[in-house]
Every structure is written in C-alpha cells, then in structure tokens.
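Let us practice reading a record.
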Amino acid sequence: MEDIIIKRIYEKPARDDGYRLLVDRVWPRGISKDEAKLDEWNKDIGPSTELRKWFNHQDERFEEFAKRYKEELKLQKEALKEIKKISKTKQVCLLYGARNEKFNQAVVIRSVLRTIK
C-alpha cells in the first residue's frame, strides 16, 4: 500500500484514515484525546521545541526548517522504519495541529518516509 496521507488533527476522523498518528510534540489545543481517535501519539518524532519556536510557522522559513528537521529525524530512524512498516499493510494518516496545510512537520515526515525502503 505505502500510502501516507496528511491531515489536520482538527478535521473529523474518517474511516479511510487508517492508522492515525499524531506527529506533534505538544498536544493540540481544543481537542480531547477521545475526539482525536489516535492509534499513536509519537511526541519524539515531532520537531524539537527550539526548532518549532524558531520556525514559528513562517512560510519563508520552511525550506530551512525542513532541512534542520530532517537532521533531527535522523535520530528517529527506528520510529520512521516502524511507520513505514505499518504503511505497507494499511493507510497511515500523519496528523498535525498547525494551521498551514502546506508547510508543516507532517509534510517533511512524509517526504522522509518516501525515501525509506
């Protein structure tokens, strides 16, 4: 299958989301754990607090953010391999809390996962 989708945690869960994985280090505001319907919350795979604060969701910083974040993700090889393994048998939905659907950590994680064999 190897299909990985990205979705805001605030969007209503859908049956075809598959394995729902939150990739934020901080729990998103205004949503309960029950509402989130998660299979997993991997805090460690989210960007470091320092990087997250530096990025501050500024579009013009995304390219540099992605570069730095990919370096951080090198320390999460096992977690990434596990997500990739899951994606071979079922849909994986990477969930994030940011408002920007184009420039966020889930986009970076998906690009890294696509390079893992």
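A brief commentary: The chain has one domain: 4-113.
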